[in-house]
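Cytochrome P450 CYP12A2 structure dump, as promised
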Amino acid sequence: MVSKGCTVVKEAEDQLKPWRKIPGPLSLPIIGQLLHFLPGGWLYNRPIELQELLHKHYGPIVRIDGNLGFPPITFIFDPEAAITLFRKEDPLPVRPGFDSIIYHRKHFYHKHEDDPNGLIIDHGEVWRKLRTMVNPVMLQTKTIKLYANVMAEVSDDMITRLRSKLNKQKMLETNLFTELNLWALESVGVVALGGRLNCLDPNLPDDSPAKKLIVTVHDIFKILHELDFTPSLWKYITTPTYKKGIKLYSEHMRLNEFFIDKAIQQLKSKEEKNDKDKSILEKLLEMDRNVAVTVSNDLLLAGVDTSASTTLALLYLLAANPEKQNKLREEVLSDEEKRPYLKACIKEALRLYPVLGGNFRQTTKEHDVLGYRIPKNMNIFIGNQSLCLMEEQFPKPTEFIPERWIVDKNDPLYYGNAHPFSHTPFGFGVRSCIGRRIAELEIETFISKMVKNFKLDWIGSPPKRTRICAINYILEPYNFVFNDV
Ligand code: HEM
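structure tokens r here:
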């Protein structure tokens, strides 16, 4: 039943079927589809990703009814239908979800009702105003390149730190994902806040603000899944998970404020800098203090686990594919300024291990999609994780083949044969990831140094991934061997 191509079914008005007729799990009176998601239900303890199961069973468009405060969702697995819908959407797109964070900001954090909540969760004019101010500071490659030296310094420190934690078997004695989170926080810190947070200090205690922040961010993504991306009763009664979530969100804001205040104090004591030496916080502070603090909060939430997860995935793929690792090392050691193979490796890691499962939007008007009428205010999920693994989009889809991103168009692997909407790891359009340039620079810098320093091996079977989080994680054990080059 899997969708074969990218056809948008253009039916005549009267042939369009209503949303209720979209295929989906059997719906029973009163409880709807809930029983499938409860213990014993076929979607509860699923062997594969929910979106893959839905796609396999129901085809290119799937209906999931809402329940227990969880809104209905339409899953779309046809890239052409998806892009057509996205293009017709409002110029100020709505990305739903995060209701529990919005609730927290409103009732437990804000001093004034009209304070912005941030790029991740705001919509409409409030979001547009924030985004317009931040885009030039964060999305221009030449602006982000100004941070290349300091990023390189952070990566050097990270390599030193990793070396100091290797045992006689050349395996890491600490948790690599925690280590990568510290590196990602340090990297985002230098760009966003303008100073070293010292996350890579060899004597960093477990109760340091940096370690507490990365644990909090990680826990937030777990709890977000339970509160906002699965049916949950928190909107009706005070559940233990809700209480835990509110505590976590407050702790996150407290830690953010600690780092932001520290950065502002440091800025006050420094001499006047050139524009090119200023951090994002500094540049935004010159425009509006509220915006600067709100956006820094965003960066400290969205810019840590995401880069760390992608880097972990790429390290694993390189360790498991030694010939690709050697090819990358050759390119890095050649000291050529352009590094197409490195960029291709990152793209391929994001294809095989995307941080987010897909693109999420809420419709602001009715749409006709694949023969059905999708109502206004409907949550739409485009299953990019499944699209990326479709044979008709990417031949040999489960293999790590960075070459597909650089071969010419006569090669059957050529990436341009895939629909452009099938690989969108940083999202789509005006609402796409604002940290993309920072993430690319930090990952490129660190991975280059890793392959220069270490020959990575992986022992045993591939790692498992978790499906119970708002973002995808690779699970322990991380069986890397870090041999010297
Ligand atoms: C490899 C790393 C990363 C990946 C794969 C990633 C992916 C994404 C995706 C898919 C979105 C949603 C886009 C959409 O709805 O169209 C997003 C949004 C966002 N990301 Fe990232 N991200 C990464 C790193 C970062 C970093 C390092 C930062 C901060 C420095 C960051 C900050 C944000 C923010 C603030 C948003 C919300 C943007 C908005 O709605 O205006 N991300 N990211």
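Residues 213 and 255 are 6 Å apart (CA to CA).
lmk if u need the other ones
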